[in-house]
Amino acid sequence: MRKGYLVLENGKIFQGGFLDGGASNDVIAEIVFTTAMTGYIETLTDKSYYGQMIVQSFPLIGNCGVIPEDFEGGKIAASAYIARSFTDMPSNFRSRGRLTGMLAANGVPAFCGIDTRSLVKIIRERGVMNAMLTDNLSRVDFEKIKAYKIIDAVKSVSSRRTEEFLGDEKDVRNYTVALMDFGAKENIKRNLLKRVKRVAVVPHNATAREIAAVKPDGIMLSNGPGDPAENVGIVNEISELIRTGIPIFGICLGHQLLALANGFLTAKLKYGHRGANQPVKNLSDGRVYISSQNHGYAVVRESVDERLADELFINVNDGTNEGLVYKKFKGFSVQFHPEAAGGPVDTEYLFDDFIRLIDGR
Prior knowledge:
Elements: E1 2-8, E2 13-18, E3 27-34, H1 40-44, E4 52-56, E5 60-61, E6 80-82, E7 85-86, H2 99-105, E8 110-112, H3 116-126, E9 129-134, H4 142-147, H5 153-157, E10 163-166, E11 173-180, H6 186-193, E12 196-202, H7 208-212, E13 218-221, H8 232-244, E14 248-251, H9 253-261, E15 266-282, E16 288-299, E17 309-315, E18 321-326, E19 331-334, H10 349-359
Helix pairs in contact: 8-9
């Protein structure tokens, strides 16, 4: 292990090390933590982590090795990966390699040897901030660290052209769903193809007219990275899609963009919700579900116009909005991930609700 340093925007410095054989280049990014104990492959390949360095609160990472079938994107999306320790001895019958090798192959710095739970406590109390990984403190520039901002996030991770996928499951609906790709996780597409015959994945900059050209029976707004309010053009196109009357289902960033298209507001959370153990309450029946989440922004509850939408879910921990159901068109959205990957599948039934919404169109 080569000596290295994690330098926080607030001046706190952690001395640890970079994994041997891996990247050790200087990285400045937003630092966030996840409380998930499993699913690190899905976490690393989740495009919603674009522009961020991930801290795992669970102390030992790498036990399951690398399982390509579980990738949620084509490559690692995060800027850097931080854990208390990494293991080079995976034990899983599905493993096809070592996590340390995967990180090195992707040029992603892997930093370890620090008290990550102490680091998580700092982020919880101070809030999400920027940080720098370096092997030389003389190169640290606090002004540069503080100035870092994630920009063009959705543009950077979205697909470049429309692609169509056909399901091979029996007894699926003969429907087409247009999946707007803002950084979509693969398991969203997988869940749709369990239920419908055709999914057309369209890029973030597709116009409402171009989306209508694939003749969708339903529209899915995917997850993705960055500040939702930055995506003015996308919000305008979603407003046009609402007018078509085609049923809409939004997940995570898609939930926020649909809210913005209806005139509601979004705001940055102090440290976000990231992990596989976030409790959400369904306000229609009072049931609480454990959900997988990865977001740093939320819809402002006070901005929701009750003439246009009702709250569907709230976060049990902090009371923030976790879902909306709309009154003027066939649409609903959730802040969490019903497709899980990784995490609990308690709310996968929402995909079935979406299909029923299309049935009743």
